[in-house]
Amino acid sequence: MSSNNRPTRSQQREEARAKAKAMREQHKKSERRKGFIVKASIGLAVVAAAAIIASVVIGGMAGNVNSNQSATPLNVTTNNGFLVGANGEMFTSTSTPTPEPVPGATAAPATPVKIITYVDYQCPYCAYFENANMAQIKGWLDSGLATLEVRPLSFLDGRGSPNTYSSRAANAAMCVASYSPNNFLAYNKALFENQPEEGTAGPENNELFATAKNVGITNQDKIRDCINQKSFGKWITKTTDTTLETGVPEYTDTFWKDQHGTPAVFVNGQYFEGAVDNAAAFAQFVQGIAAGK
């Protein structure tokens, strides 16, 4: 579909504002219904941060796939994301992806620019961004120009995601990130390429697992169980609620309260405000920051 048939940036912002408002209202209802206390979650985050190795939480699970959805994903960063580098490989306790030098190519910056995305796997604008930009982002990862941290959220269950596809897809992505981390980027891409229409029932768990197999995952049994048991369900809910309450640490603690929605894309802490499906505009934005402009 051409960008001429897509909503204008102004229309996107209006819908984002409406979604942000709905997100906050759902958050308040969730607190009343579940007795969730934001201060407690922040305290848990502080405890988790104490276990960080380098810039990534590489530690073990809080339990296992039979823990009644109470597990914490492996390889998660301090800010509840998954950090990917050269060759689409994830940063873990045993892996630091390093780009291969290419003779004659422009040298990568000493410090790669850091791209951060907040996404909901049922959000159509997130798919517009991902499908338009992932090929060039992958090139930047491979060259060492950039790293990518994906921070999944889930706030569309029951509205744009009637069969809880939003949270189930987020959980499935975290299952792959935990047990087959070097396939996470490919799986993230596949989820957006095959995103169901908003308001329709999305793929069931067996289809989410089939998609994971198609991108070449290892540890298939663990990932199948993790998807079927929604092992990270509680973590996803808690992280989404806390994120919407505390904002974006690299930008502002009032980001979501300021009527913003997903996708939320940042490059070295600068918020990308261009059209989400305009790859040329995003490339100019990233390359300008990389060049120090």
Secondary structure layout plus pairing:
Layout (H helix, E strand, L loop, with lengths): L8 H26 L3 H12 L32 E3 L28 E8 L3 H20 L2 E8 L11 H15 L4 H10 L11 H10 L5 H9 L4 H14 L17 E4 L2 E2 L7 H12 L3
Parallel strand pairs: 2-3
Antiparallel strand pairs: 1-3, 2-4, 4-5
Helix pairs in contact: 4-5, 4-6, 4-7, 6-7
Description:
This protein is of the alpha+beta class. It has one domain: Glutaredoxin, CATH 3.40.30.10. Helix content is 44%, strand content 9%. Helix 3 links the parallel strand 2 and strand 3. The longest helix is centred in the N-terminal third of the chain and has 26 residues. The relative contact order is 0.17.
Quick take:
This protein has 9 helices and 5 strands; from the N terminus they run H-H-E-E-H-E-H-H-H-H-H-E-E-H. 44% of the residues lie in helices and 9% in strands.
